[in-house]
Amino acid sequence: MDARYEALTFKMANSRKYTPDWVVFDGGRPVSCHECKGSYKLHSHGRAQLAFAQCKVEFPGLEWIWHEATE
Fold this sequence. Notes:
Order of helices and strands: EEEEEHE
Number of strands: 6
Largest sheet: 4 strands, mixed
Radius of gyration: 12 Å
Number of helices: 1
Shape: globular
Oligomer: single chain
Distance between the termini: 29 Å
C-alpha cells in the first residue's frame, strides 16, 4: 500500500472539485481517501464536509474516512 498527499482531485456532478488530504493506493489503484481536520474549525471546515459527503455518494467504489482531532 502507498499513501500519497493530495494525490487525486475529484470532479463532482455539480462541477465542483474536491481534493482529499490523503489517498491510499494498492497496486496503483486508489482504495481509500482520508480527510484530516484539526480540532480548531476554520471557515473551510463546513465546505470540506459537504464536498467529502458528496464525493462519498458519487464515488462509492472508494472507502471515505474523515479524521478529526478532538483536542
